[in-house]
Each structure stands twice: as structure tokens, then as C-alpha cells.
Amino acid sequence: MIEKLEQQLDSFDAAERRQALLSLLEKVKSGAIGLPEPGRFVNLHCHTFFSYNTYGYSPTKFAWLARKAGLAVVGTTDFDVLDALDEFREACRLLGLKGCSGLETRVYVPQFSTRVINSPGEPGISYHMGVGFPNAKVPAAQQKFLKGLKQTAQQRNRDLMQRVNRYLSPIELDYEQDVLTLTPAGNATERHMCLAYARKARDRFSATSDELAAFWSQKLGTDARKLGLPEGRDLLNTIRAKTMKRGGVGYVQPDSGSFPLMADTNRFILAAGGMPVHTWLDGTSDGEQAIEELLDVAMSTGAVAINVIPDRNYTPGSQDQKVKNLYHVVEVAQRRHLVVVEGTEMNSPGQKFVDDFNTAELAPLLPVFRKSAYIIYAHSVLQSRCGLGYTGVWADQHFGTAERKNAYFEEVGATLKPGQEDMLAGLDRKASPDAVLTKVRM
Hints:
Elements: H1 2-8, H2 14-30, E1 42-46, H3 59-68, E2 73-79, H4 85-95, E3 98-108, E4 125-131, H5 140-168, H6 175-179, H7 190-204, H8 210-220, H9 233-243, H10 262-271, E5 275-279, H11 286-289, H12 291-300, E6 305-308, H13 321-335, E7 339-342, H14 366-386, H15 393-398, H16 402-415, H17 433-440
Helix pairs in contact: 1-2, 3-4, 7-9, 14-16, 16-17
């Protein structure tokens, strides 16, 4: 019964997801399921099935599993939408879990138009995030921008699919029937298309036939029998690499008009009550080797944080260059008093639920990540309940430096219990920082 209820947490029916969570909570109450106290680990960057989660997790499922794992703070991040926010916040409230939500997109950085940043082979293009949004429904003045992110991405996918269809014929997709049905709210990604192509080929040929292997081997230029047919991780990744990414048959090089400017995106995030976040890959590109210059640009347009994905940047027991790069970027962020957003993404097969912070490479960095997670959680709650967030006028008035602001929001985030969040609703901009802390400590 527990396993069945956990499976229902990933249903595309929101009512079924909620009822499954309530049923699981009844089992917690009865003692049939034990939940640990919150521990030390965090994951602030997890995609849900509202963009693409490689394990099919809904916002509710991620919250449940995070609570079972004893995580201290967690956050959802979906491409181009805030669809997970309300559901995730409600699930966290029911579970007594500290959580927040944001989005990820791609932007253009004109100052780096000739240098690759973190989108391989695409000079001037950068993955970018906003975290700690207070509401899924952004203010009216920002709704057009948010809607445009999704619409642009979906049109880009449709155009890409047409080019790939011509190459993979007779395996051709219908976007509505084959792709959008894989996601609950019409926000498909390239990874959904890869899965749809794999399943279309599986249905056309026998899943175990030589014909299926021959088709993919010919189209992908490699021995498909080694890729985990009919829809294994290596096959999906190879489909994407060979048909959709740089050098692939469907790929079109983006230009300065393909994505919004970083500056405009940061203005949207700030106006919507979020925290703008520059994202970092691994420190090996021309752009990331100029990290100080890159952060100057990002911070000048409003960025207050940087995102890192540690798991792809170290090999346990090996002090290689990527580990050094990871430590260097965290050091730079701390020196600049930037919040450091950390997570595993979970939008690609094989990615972990949570990083192993017990390894020698990551253990020294955990205090930085946990402090930052508390800051983002505190911002999310204060901004949504009373408009007193990290990036607002109130914080600017009361904290003279980013260092002081970080210390304050860390204390709020570490002290505040999820069940006390609504107690902050009566505060307004006349409240002093001490008055907020008094509420938090009650």
C-alpha cells in the first residue's frame, strides 16, 4: 500500500497526488511510517515533471522523498515555468519541510558574445535561474515575460522536432500526441522529445528486435545494442547529442535574439520577488575562466547568487582540476558574499537525489551550501508572507552590506519552523529586523 501511494504521488492528476500524500501522512501519524528529524543535507535545484525529471517526480513526490531522507532545505527549479511552486509549498507545509521554488532559463550576455559561458558551443548564451519566488502567479506587469519564456521554448522545440523528424523518418513525432502527453502542463523539453522518439521506435519495431537496433545504429552512427534499448539512459543521451545539440542534424546555432538578455531576465526576477542567480558549469570554458569579469556583469544586472552542481565536478578520491575549479568558484562567491545555490538537477538519467556530502571533496563545502539554503528559504517565506524579502526595499534599508544581510537571513532561515510561517503574515515594512526575529523565535 505504501509503495502504491508513493507511485500515485507522480500522477498527472493533482487531486490524486494530494490525496496520496494525505494518506501517507495518516500512516505517519499512525506510526506505520517513520520520518527522521531534518538533517544537514540540502538540494535546492531539483527539476520536477513540470519541466523534466528523469525519475518522473512531481513536486509532491520530491517533497515526500526529501522529508523521508531528512533533508534540511529543498527547492524545485523548472525550465521556464513556476508551475511547481504552489503544489510544492503546500506539500512542504504538510510535511513540515523547509522548501522554496524557482525557475531556470537561458539568457544572452552581450558582454560575452564571443566567449562560451556554460552552454557548450554557444558563445554569449548562459543558463540562468531565479530562486525563492513568493508566488506562482507573478505580478501583472511581469506575466507577459514569464509567458514568453514558455512560449519561446515550446516553439523552439516544435521547430527542432520538424528538423529531427525529417532525419529520423519513418520515426516521426506529433508534438501534441507524442510529446505533450509526457508532461502534465504543456511544458515539454528536449528530453521529453528524446523519450518520445525512443518509444515511437520501440512501438514501430519490436523492442528486442535486430530491426530496432539496426535503425538506431544507422541513424546515430554507433552500435545501438550497447545503448540500452529500447529507452535506456545512453540511448536517450545519444539521441539528444546526435540530433538536437551542437553538431546534430536538428541543431540551429542561437544568436543574440534567441533568448532574453540577462539584464532583462534579472529585472523580471526581481520584480516578481525572486533572487537572480548566475549558473556555473565547471570552470573550463573561456567565459568561466574569466569568472570575476562574468560575475561583475551578472551582479551589475542584479544577480545575488550563483548556482553550482557539485556531483558533475568531482570524482571521489581524486583532486583533479574540476575539484579545484569548484573550490575556486565557491571561494570567489564567498568573497563577494554571493548566495551559493546547490543541487543535483535530476533532469538527466543517473543524477543523484542528493549529493554525498560525506565525501572528502564535498564535506568542507556543506556549511556554505546549508547557509545559503537557509537564506533562500528565509527570503521565500518573508517575501511571500509580508513582502520583506532579501532583494526588496526593506532589506536594503536595514542592512548596509551583503554580509550583514546574509547573516540575518541565515538566522531567520535556520530558526524558522515551517509550521510558524503564517505567523509572519501580520508584519509589514515598518517592522524592524528584531521584530521579525522575535516572531520567528516564538
